Automatic annotation (TrEMBL):
<keyword id="KW-0413">Isomerase</keyword>
<dbReference type="InterPro" id="IPR006145">
    <property type="entry name" value="PsdUridine_synth_RsuA/RluA"/>
</dbReference>
<comment type="similarity">
    <text>Belongs to the pseudouridine synthase RluA family.</text>
</comment>
<dbReference type="GO" id="GO:0140098">
    <property type="term" value="F:catalytic activity, acting on RNA"/>
</dbReference>
<dbReference type="InterPro" id="IPR006224">
    <property type="entry name" value="PsdUridine_synth_RluA-like_CS"/>
</dbReference>
<dbReference type="InterPro" id="IPR020103">
    <property type="entry name" value="PsdUridine_synth_cat_dom_sf"/>
</dbReference>
<feature type="domain" description="Pseudouridine synthase RsuA/RluA-like">
    <location>
        <begin position="89"/>
        <end position="159"/>
    </location>
</feature>
<dbReference type="InterPro" id="IPR050188">
    <property type="entry name" value="RluA_PseudoU_synthase"/>
</dbReference>
<dbReference type="GO" id="GO:0009982">
    <property type="term" value="F:pseudouridine synthase activity"/>
</dbReference>
<dbReference type="GO" id="GO:0003723">
    <property type="term" value="F:RNA binding"/>
</dbReference>
<dbReference type="Pfam" id="PF00849">
    <property type="entry name" value="PseudoU_synth_2"/>
</dbReference>
<protein>
    <recommendedName>
        <fullName>RNA pseudouridylate synthase</fullName>
    </recommendedName>
</protein>
<dbReference type="GO" id="GO:0000455">
    <property type="term" value="P:enzyme-directed rRNA pseudouridine synthesis"/>
</dbReference>
Length: 160
């Protein structure tokens, strides 16, 4: 899977390492995969870790799916999903009271199963709500974005 984006004008000059670690919040393990496999391109050229990136540069990150094995989960009922927001990386849904966010047993059906069926691929719970609680729940649509969303929650840059 590839992610390509242009660095905004508001971003200061920095090294590739700083971009991945401080701006994009990419965890160490994923940064390691990107660096070792040379899956970081700036303006369509391979770059070294300490090279400088500038506003307007085009960054391309390639993630190999074999580095992120997906768990197979049973499919649920997509009609039970109340989508609030969705983009290529995440989905936010309204969890009704009385439904578990994720099952405790391997074949237990919960909101995670319904959302994965709705999206058409395995999703990942970013945070959960108790079964008795209704409200918004954030799911990552791929394993690459999950640790980034977790760090944003941890740093309180996004909240539950």
């Amino acid at each position: 899977m590839q992610f390509t984006f242009t660095l905004p004008a508001s971003i200061p000059q920095m090294t590739v390492k700083q971009l991945l670690e401080e701006q994009l919040l990419i965890p160490r393990k994923i940064r390691h995969f990107l660096r070792i496999k040379k899956h970081i391109l700036i303006n369509q050229e391979e770059v070294h870790w300490n090279e400088i990136v500038n506003p307007g540069d085009v960054c391309q990150l390639t993630f190999d799916e074999e580095d992120y094995p997906q768990k197979t989960i049973p499919w649920g009922n997509p009609d039970l999903v109340q989508e609030v927001y969705q983009d290529q990386h995440l989905i936010i849904v309204n969890k009704p009271e009385g439904m578990k966010t994720h099952g405790n047993q391997p074949n237990e059906i919960a909101l995670l199963n319904h959302v994965s069926t709705y999206v058409g691929q395995t999703c990942y719970v970013v945070h959960r709500l108790d079964m008795e609680t209704s409200g918004l729940v954030l799911f990552a649509k791929n394993p690459f974005i999950l640790p980034i969303l977790n760090r944003l929650l941890e740093k309180k840059e996004i909240s539950r």
